[in-house]
Design brief:
This protein is of the alpha/beta class. It contains nine helices and eight strands. Strands 7-6-5-4-3-2-1-8 form an eight-stranded parallel sheet. Helix 4 links the parallel strand 3 and strand 4. Keywords: Pyridoxal phosphate.
Length: 226
């Protein structure tokens, strides 16, 4: 076994051990939690060892970057599941529907319209999360908290399948109150899944009900940037 695969296996085991510990503290099973390995900015050579170590669910932030990497990888590993976890422009909706298995960033009516049209045209219903701007931060994407019920209703009307809610809490401060608020909103709307928690806070997110965690650095190490 190569050093890269051994390192990937060790990192994956460490994350899964933390997931298991957090899940057991709240009477849950880690098997019910989806670990999404966020591979944005990672080259194929960095992704492959993690696949060889057993990881099968990956997340990308940008449609174009995913288009450059994943079609070839998925030919090698056809059981890969690919999630879009970053912001989505309406003009990329058709590409996203064609490439991804799940979209985490539905956050506005115009994007909903584009996604519904793309799903109708492609004959493919891609499950979505509604991204909530849980900290009301101007610089972040996400649906305003007050607008979430209307967007949920519109998605159901448009036959866009909804899995749950997604958030990225403010970088400063304790994330737990934001995770708890997202969980409360999901319960009120009858949505079962919560996409929340990243490398620095996924343990807290799991204890507050996360069903999907988006982990990059803890699996890949420090992220390379151009």
């Amino acid at each position: 076994m190569t050093t890269a695969i051994t390192q990937a296996r060790d990192r994956l085991a460490a994350v899964r051990d933390t997931m298991d510990r957090a899940a057991r503290l709240t009477g849950r099973s880690a098997d019910a939690i989806t670990l999404i390995a966020v591979s944005k900015t990672q080259e194929t050579d960095a992704i492959r060892p993690l696949i060889e170590a057993g990881q099968r669910v990956f997340g990308e932030n940008r449609v174009q970057e995913a288009q450059a990497k994943w079609p070839a990888l998925r030919q090698e590993y056809p059981d890969i599941r690919l999630h879009l976890v970053g912001q989505l422009q309406s003009n990329k909706a058709a590409d996203a529907v064609a490439l991804f298995d799940v979209i985490h960033s539905l956050d506005r009516p115009s994007l909903l319209t584009s996604l519904a049209k793309a799903m109708d045209a492609g004959g493919r219903r891609v499950p979505c999360y509604i991204q909530v701007n849980i900290g009301a931060e101007e610089q972040k994407g996400g649906c305003a908290i007050a607008d979430v019920p209307a967007l949920i209703a519109a998605a159901r009307e448009a036959d866009v399948p909804l899995l749950g809610l997604m958030c990225v809490p403010p970088a400063q401060g304790e994330p737990a109150p934001y995770f708890a608020l997202l969980a409360k909103m999901a319960r009120e709307e009858g949505l079962e899944r919560l996409s929340m928690g990243m490398s620095g806070d996924f343990e807290t997110a799991i204890m507050l009900g996360a069903t999907d965690i988006r982990v990059g650095t803890a699996l890949f190490g420090a992220r390379p940037y151009p």
